[in-house]
Amino acid sequence: MHFNLALTQFFVIGMLFVRKSWGLTCFQTDEETGEIQAVTKDDYVYCRLFPAVRHPITGKLVHAQVDGIIKEEVDGPFQKFFDAQEPYYQVLSICLYERYHFFPNNPSKPAEYQFRCICNTDRCNSPSTFEPYLGTLRRKSQDNREESA
């Protein structure tokens, strides 16, 4: 009995060590080529996705940007969300629509808006699966507006 318990504890601790040594795998945009590749780093704590959007003034498509985030780059209390788990509930990703207005007293410098998603599982920041999901949400939202009109 004690042997089985000790073996189980050794296995669990070993798996935690192996998982930690593997690090988190996030998709990352190559800044030079624009290609997206999977990158594993021990110090990634989250993966991040900036979905493709149209520039509000030019209408030009700005392609998705993806990368991993190390602890020193974390700019929000994300861990509180991911830690809030129950057997029936778990946060898988957090998406934020943010407004930055660095020069509020200068009307010639408008506020900037940013939409990003944060997640903490391997390869969770894939634009190829996330962007169709957003498109479906937009279509459903449009259908709901038309039906209620």
Automatic annotation (TrEMBL):
Residues 1-23 form the signal peptide. Keywords: Signal. It comes from the Eukaryota. The keyword Signal applies. It holds the Pfam family DUF5354. This is Uncharacterized protein. It comes from Acrobeloides nanus.
